[in-house]
Design brief:
Strand content of chain B: under 5%
Helix content of chain A: over 70%
Helix content of chain B: over 70%
Number of strands of chain A: 2
Radius of gyration of chain B: 25 Å
CATH topology of one domain in chain B: MetI-like fold
CATH architecture of one domain in chain B: Orthogonal Bundle
CATH class of one domain in chain B: Mainly Alpha
Structural class of chain B: mainly alpha
Distance between the termini of chain A: 35 Å
Number of strands of chain B: 0
Oligomer: heterodimer
CATH topology of chain A: MetI-like fold
CATH superfamily of chain A: MetI-like
Largest sheet of chain B: none
Strand content of chain A: under 5%
Chain lengths: ~290, ~290
């Protein structure tokens, strides 16, 4: 039996309409906004690169990009911790399923909840500092969210804390699909835990880690708004403004849509570069025998 | 049989090295318990303090409540607009997830099961859209919504959420649908079943757990989403729980237990869903990785 050639389109049409309205149209419009320069009084807006010039010379935008770059430092930490923890869980110690369930809990919690609770814990007079002073580590009792030096790093800690569970689950899913023989033969050869980790587990995890790494790099660029909004509102002294927050402020606080859109185009460009990296990485992995 | 003998030899080896295994086991459990404790610290902090009165919190911030009370939870729920926000979140989450899952299922059907020529191209485009930063979309959508005078309405946010989730949910359902045997579909077709009947009576019933997986992962995302809710629902009575919590937090700044109780109310639905449907969460979140 033959299917009418228009029928597939009919089924896909509602999805295509939605995606066009929510993705295609806004992206095209964003480019248009970014090129629109408001004219002087009574003059119609003109087209030009003034918004981009503004963005590229704005020190706050530089801060924002540098903060996103600093957030990238979370990714290697998350990768290292998920490798170690998933390897430990994969040894199936007693109760490993319960550990897995609990380690994944942070990923389920909402960013506002996490942000506020950590806000109270990290307060200058908060629980953490009281505890640190109590055990004689007074020098570690920092103004975690209140000082421009530490606020961004504190946010990074919270992000690592929250996103780690995802990495563990990904790595475990990958390890389960790896043939047990690899581990077994290493064990029979008398390899130590660390040796197995280095020579068997990590190479086998490579595809999962590449995936996790790229996803998290993209997250660090395009999904950190909520952390900043909830924990610091960009402060103190703009030290935690990230690109998303910069765009948000320009558009919704300062009402400068053109500048916000130009920053949005830059962000989109950076994400596109990361995607290209991902495609290349995948090809590289495919060439070296995975998948 | 093969796995059985591997397990047996593993057991033998384990017994031969008991000494080293015990130390290993201790270290393992120590590391895991340490990380679990850190992972659960905020939940613990939130839970113990939600059952304290304000007066107790000032002297006992980290311990279990010595005089447990349910009044704080009551104040949190009734005191502000929390139950309205809870309701708003429920409405927005349920409707947008239902809409997005339905459209995704309709679209995944031709892409995975109809040998539709543009199918792979459509799927490729959807995968590319997965990584578009939401803030980039929000700016033009906001201008459009204001222009159409549709700000502060349920349907606006429901449509935006459904649309933003569609690439992910379609992609996920495509990968689940493609595991359905083509022979089965072919057989039904030969028996004269219409394209719609095959979808309704074969594809959907076979995909029950896939649909639940997609719906659960999406619910988690919508329930916890902040940016879109902040921008498009600015009226006090229309706020979602996540945005409401930010107001709650500043209003009850001096009464930390009430804030913690509010957070607990906001957290319980998702944690319950997670504990009940853990395998769906894990399946949904790892499916993307397995397919790469």
């Amino acid at each position: 039996m033959r299917i009418n050639r228009w029928l597939p389109w009919l089924y896909a049409a509602p999805m295509i309409v939605f995606v066009a309205a929510i993705f295609a149209y806004p992206i095209v419009t964003l480019f248009r906004y970014s090129l629109e320069v408001p004219g002087a009084a009574n003059e119609p807006p003109s087209t030009g690169l003034a918004n981009f010039e503004y963005v590229f010379t704005d020190p706050l935008f530089h801060t924002a990009l540098l903060n996103n770059l600093e957030l990238f430092l979370c990714v290697p930490v998350m990768i290292a911790l998920s490798v170690i923890l998933s390897a430990i869980l994969f040894d199936r110690p007693k109760g490993w399923k319960i550990y897995r369930t609990l380690l994944f809990v942070p990923y389920i919690l909402s960013i506002p909840t996490v942000g506020f609770v950590f806000g109270y814990i990290f307060q200058y007079q908060g629980v953490l500092n009281t505890g640190l002073k109590l055990i004689g580590l007074k020098f570690l009792a920092l103004d975690w969210l209140g000082s421009p030096t530490w606020a961004m790093r504190t946010i990074m800690l919270v992000i690592i804390w929250k996103e780690l569970g995802f990495g563990i689950i990904l790595c475990l899913a990958r390890l389960v699909s790896v043939s047990e023989e690899y581990f077994e033969s290493a064990r029979v050869d008398g390899a130590r835990w660390w040796q197995i980790l280095w020579h068997v587990t990590i190479p086998q995890l490579a595809p999962a880690l590449a995936f996790y790494g790229i996803i998290e790099l993209i997250n660090m660029l395009s999904w950190v708004f909520a952390y900043v909004y909830v924990m610091t509102l960009g402060g103190p002294m703009n030290s935690t403004v990230v690109t998303e927050y910069y765009i948000y402020q320009q558009v919704f606080t300062n009402d400068i849509v053109g500048v916000g859109s130009a920053a949005g185009v830059v962000l989109l460009g950076i994400v596109a570069v990361l995607i290209a990296m991902r495609v290349r990485l995948q090809r590289r992995l495919a060439l070296s025998g995975y998948e | 049989m093969a796995t059985n003998s591997i397990a047996m030899s593993a057991g033998l080896i384990a017994r031969r090295r008991t000494g080293r295994r015990v130390i290993g086991a201790f270290t393992r459990h120590a590391v895991l318990i340490g990380f679990c404790a850190v992972a659960l610290l905020p939940v613990y902090f939130m839970t113990v303090n939600a059952f304290k009165a304000r007066s107790e919190y000032t002297t006992n911030k980290l311990g279990l409540p010595l005089h447990p009370t349910l009044k704080t939870l009551g104040t949190a729920l009734g005191g502000g607009d929390l139950y309205w926000w809870l309701l708003n979140s429920l409405i927005v989450t349920l409707l947008s997830v239902a809409l997005s899952t339905a459209l995704a299922a309709l679209a995944a059907y031709p892409i995975s099961l109809m040998r539709w020529k543009p199918g792979p191209v459509v799927l490729g485009a959807l995968i590319a859209l997965l990584v578009v930063p939401p803030i980039v979309l929000i700016v033009p959508i906001f201008e459009m919504v204001v222009h159409l005078d549709q700000l502060n309405t349920y349907h606006t946010v429901i449509i935006i959420y459904a649309g933003i989730m569609l690439p992910f949910s379609t992609f996920l359902l495509c990968s689940f649908f493609s595991t359905i045997s083509p022979a089965l579909i072919e057989a039904a077709r030969i028996d004269g079943a219409s394209v719609w009947r095959i979808f309704w009576e074969i594809v959907l019933p076979l995909s029950g757990s896939a649909l639940v997986t997609v719906a659960i992962v999406q619910s988690l995302w919508v329930w916890n989403e902040v940016l879109i809710a902040v921008v498009f629902l600015q009226e006090q009575g229309l706020r979602t729980l996540m945005v409401g919590l930010t107001i709650f937090n500043s209003r009850y700044r001096v009464d930390v237990p009430v804030v913690m109780a509010g957070m607990l109310w906001a957290t319980v639905p998702m944690v319950t869903l997670y504990l009940l449907g853990q395998r769906f969460f894990i399946r949904g979140l790892t499916a993307g990785a397995v397919k790469g």
